[in-house]
Specification:
Blueprint (H helix, E strand, L loop, with lengths): L9 E7 L3 H13 L5 E5 L39 H22 L10 E3 L2 E6 L1 H14 L9 E3 L2 H7 L1 H4 L8 E6 L3 E3 L1 H13 L4 E5 L1 E9 L2 E8 L5 E11 L5 H8 L8 E12 L2 H5 L4 E3 L13 E7 L2 E11 L12 H5 L5 H10 L1 H11 L3 H8 L11 E16 L3 E5 L2 E5 L5 E6 L7 H12 L1 H14 L11 H14 L5
Parallel strand pairs: 1-2, 1-11, 2-8, 4-13, 11-19
Antiparallel strand pairs: 3-7, 4-6, 5-6, 9-10, 10-11, 12-15, 12-16, 13-14, 14-15, 16-17, 18-19
Helix pairs in contact: 1-6, 1-13, 2-13, 2-15
Length: 496
C-alpha cells in the first residue's frame, strides 16, 4: 500500500472513504477524465470493511419490488407508488452502469458480485392482505414492475417460500407477492472489483490504513490532513475536488470543511444487528428475499426481512434487522463520535428531533433490551419452526441518519440519502443511509451534475455509453424500459 506524503502538487480528485460510493464516483470520473490525478483514502486495512462489507448490510438490490415502506397507504386508501417508481428507476441506472463495466472488461464475471434472487413481500392479517392486494394492483401494470405475481394460495406460497410456510398455523389470512427479477448484491465484492480496476489506471493511488482527520480550504484548493494509523505519522495532500464518502464519518469531516451548506446538519446513529443461520439444511430450503411490514413506531430501515445471501459463491441466510444504539458513527469508530459532532449550529435541530420522535426512542430502547428469545419470536413470524441453535447474532454497520433544520418543527430526522455540496462544487459529501449502495450509480451521477456542471454537456455522450437511459426516464418510456431490463438481465447473467 502507498503511504500519504506531503507534496507541492495538487491532485484533481481525493476520495475520502473506500466504500461503494467513493469507488463508483472514482470509476465514473476516471472514465470521463482519464488524465485526472486521483487518490483514495481508507481508514481500515482492507477495502470495503465498513458499510459496504457484505455481512454489514442485507445485500438487497433495492428496487422497491418487495419493500413495503416505499408504497405507503394514504388516508383515502390509495397506494402511493411514486417513491417505489423512483427507487426502481435508480436501481435500473445502477444495473446499466454495472453492465457497462462487464461489457468493457472492468468486471470479468458479474456473478462475483450479483446473483438472481426472487424478491417477495409477505403479510398476514386481513387488513394487510387487502393492502398487499391493492399494492399489487397499483404496481403490476407499470413497466418497471411488470411480471409481479400476487397470491393468497397457501400451496403457491409454499412453492415460493417453503421455509416460511412450514409449520404455519392454518386460519390466518396470508398473502405474498413474487418478483422473479430480484437480486442479491455483494457490495463489498463489487467495491473491491471497482477499486482493483481503478488501480490498473494511470494517475490513481490507494492509501489504506490512513485516516483523514481534517479538510480545510487553502488558496482555492482543499488541504487534506491524513494520519497513518499504523505509524501515527501525519501528512497532507492538496486537491481541487474532494468527495467525502466515508459512511457515518462523513458528517464530522463535512463539518470540518466549514462550508455554509453544512451548518445546522446533525446526525443520529443507529446500529444494526441480524440473525444469521448456521444450519446448511435450513439455508438450502430458502431462495428469496422476503420482506414484511414494519411494526408500529419502527423506523423505515427496520422492516423485517428474511434474506438469501450469496457471498463469495456461498449461499447464506439472515433475518433482521434488529436496531440498537451506539454513539459511534462507524462500526469501528469512537464512542465520542456523536458528542463531538454536536455544535451550536445543529444543537437546536437535534433537540427538536429528540422531542418529536418519542416513538422512535421507545422503539430503540425496546430493541436494545431484547433477549435472544425476543429476537427468535420476531424470526418465527417468518420461520415458524426456528430454533435458537440454528442462528447466531451478528453486528452489522452503523447508520447515521440526517438531522436538518426545519422552519416548522425546528429539526427533522431524514431516513434517505442526501448529497451536501459546496456552492462552488469543489467539495461534496454523502450523508444518510437506505437505499444507499443499491443506488450508488444515480447518486454519483447527481454528484457529477452538482459539482461539475461545466463538464456535463461534454461528458453526456460518454455517460450515455455507460448508462443508456442517462437524461431520460424509464418510467415514461416503456420501450426503453423493456430494452434496458432485457439487456442488463442478459449481461449481468440474472436469468437462470
Amino acid at each position: 500500500m502507498s503511504s500519504a506524503s506531503t507534496t507541492d502538487s495538487v491532485l484533481d480528485v481525493v476520495l475520502v472513504g473506500d466504500g461503494i460510493m467513493s469507488a463508483t464516483l472514482g470509476t465514473f470520473l476516471k472514465a470521463l477524465q482519464p488524465d485526472w490525478s486521483m487518490a483514495m483514502y481508507g481508514r481500515l486495512d482492507t477495502v470495503a470493511r465498513e458499510s459496504s462489507d457484505p455481512w454489514h448490510n442485507a445485500g438487497t438490490g433495492h428496487a422497491a419490488l418487495c419493500e413495503l415502506n416505499y408504497t405507503p397507504e394514504g388516508k383515502d386508501g390509495r397506494i402511493d407508488i411514486s417513491k417505489a417508481v423512483a427507487i426502481n428507476e435508480q436501481f435500473q441506472i445502477s444495473r446499466q452502469f454495472w453492465s457497462h463495466l462487464v461489457d468493457t472488461g472492468a468486471i470479468a464475471n458479474p456473478r462475483d458480485f450479483i446473483s438472481p434472487i426472487p424478491h417477495m413481500s409477505f403479510v398476514w392479517g386481513a387488513d394487510n392482505v387487502d393492502y398487499l392486494r391493492r399494492r399489487h394492483e397499483a404496481l403490476r401494470d407499470h413497466p418497471l414492475f411488470s411480471g409481479m405475481e400476487f397470491s393468497t394460495d397457501s400451496a403457491q406460497m409454499a412453492q415460493w417460500m417453503p421455509l416460511v410456510m412450514d409449520g404455519r398455523t392454518a386460519g390466518t389470512p396470508l398473502a405474498a407477492t413474487f418478483m422473479e427479477g430480484g437480486t442479491d448484491v455483494n457490495f463489498g465484492a463489487l467495491t473491491r472489483l471497482l477499486v482493483a480496476d481503478l488501480q490498473r489506471k494511470q494517475g490513481f493511488s490507494l492509501h489504506m490504513g490512513h485516516e483523514v482527520h481534517d479538510i480545510k480550504p487553502v488558496q482555492g484548493n482543499w488541504k487534506i490532513a491524513v494520519r497513518d494509523r499504523a505509524s501515527g505519522r501525519t501528512s497532507s495532500v492538496m486537491t481541487r475536488f474532494v468527495f467525502i464518502g466515508a459512511g457515518g464519518w462523513a458528517l464530522p469531516l463535512l463539518q470540518k470543511t466549514g462550508i455554509p451548506e453544512a451548518r445546522g446538519i446533525g446526525g443520529f446513529p443507529v446500529s444494526g444487528q441480524f440473525l444469521r443461520c448456521t444450519n446448511p439444511d435450513i439455508i438450502a430450503r430458502h431462495q428469496a428475499k422476503v420482506y414484511g411490514k414494519a411494526s408500529v413506531g419502527a423506523p423505515p430501515m427496520s422492516v423485517p426481512h428474511l434474506d438469501t445471501r450469496v457471498i463469495d459463491g456461498k449461499k447464506g441466510l439472515l433475518f433482521g434487522p434488529y436496531a440498537g444504539f451506539s454513539t459511534r458513527f462507524l462500526k469501528y469508530g469512537s464512542l465520542w463520535d456523536l458528542p463531538a459532532s454536536i455544535n451550536m449550529g445543529n444543537l437546536g435541530p437535534i433537540l427538536a428531533v429528540a422531542r418529536d420522535n418519542f416513538a422512535l426512542t421507545k422503539y430503540l430502547v425496546q430493541q436494545v433490551m431484547q433477549s435472544m428469545n425476543d429476537r427468535l419470536e420476531a424470526l418465527r413470524d417468518f420461520v415458524p419452526d426456528a430454533r435458537a441453535e440454528d442462528w447466531e447474532l451478528i453486528v452489522a454497520d452503523q447508520r447515521v441518519q440526517i438531522i436538518t433544520k426545519d422552519a416548522q418543527h425546528g429539526g427533522v430526522l431524514k431516513f434517505g440519502t442526501e448529497i451536501i455540496a459546496s456552492g462552488d462544487g469543489t467539495v461534496a459529501a454523502l450523508l444518510g443511509a437506505s437505499p444507499g449502495a443499491s443506488t450508488a450509480a444515480p447518486i454519483m451521477l447527481n454528484v457529477l451534475r452538482k459539482c461539475f456542471p461545466q463538464y456535463i454537456e461534454r461528458w453526456t455522450p460518454a455517460l450515455r455509453e455507460m448508462v443508456p437511459s442517462f437524461g431520460r426516464t424509464l418510467a415514461d418510456d416503456p420501450a426503453l424500459c423493456a430494452e434496458v431490463r432485457e439487456r442488463t438481465t442478459r449481461v449481468l447473467q440474472l436469468a437462470d
